[in-house]
Design goal:
Number of helices: 4
Radius of gyration: 16 Å
Order of helices and strands: EHHEHH
Helix content: 40-55%
Shape: globular
Largest sheet: 2 strands, parallel
Structural class: mainly alpha
C-alpha cells in the first residue's frame, strides 16, 4: 500500500517515491479477487479501499497518482501504459544515456 513504503528498510535511499494506481471496475475486481480465494469480507473491504484511493489519487499524492484502468485492457496495453509512466519519471531524474542503458540492461522490458 502507498503508506507502507516508508516502512521499507531501503526507503531512506530514495529521493522520491512515485505511485501508480492499477484500477478496475467493481465487477472485475470481485471476479479477480474471488479467483485468488479472497473472502467476501476482504473483497468488500478492498472495493471500498479501491474507490477511496481512486477518489484521492489527484489530491493526496505528490505528484498526483495516475490511474491505469485494467478492466478491459489487455496485458500488453496495461504494460505499455506502465512503461510510459516509468519512462516519464526516469527521463526527469536521469539523463537519456542512463535511461537507455537501464532499458538495454533490462532487455528493453521497461
Amino acid at each position: 500500500m502507498p503508506w507502507d513504503v516508508e516502512k521499507c528498510v531501503d526507503y531512506s535511499y530514495f529521493k522520491h517515491v512515485y505511485e501508480l494506481n492499477l484500477h478496475c471496475d467493481d465487477l472485475t475486481r470481485e471476479k479477480r479477487l474471488r479467483e485468488r480465494n479472497w473472502s467476501n469480507e476482504m473483497i468488500q473491504d478492498y472495493k471500498i479501499f479501491a474507490k477511496e484511493l481512486f477518489e484521492i489519487s489527484d489530491s493526496a499524492f505528490d505528484p498526483a497518482m495516475p490511474t491505469v484502468v485494467t478492466t478491459d485492457n489487455d496485458v500488453e496495453e496495461v504494460a505499455g501504459q506502465i512503461k510510459a509512466w516509468v519512462l516519464k519519471y526516469a527521463s526527469q531524474n536521469f539523463n537519456e544515456h542512463d535511461v537507455s542503458q537501464y532499458s538495454h540492461e533490462c532487455n528493453g522490458r521497461i
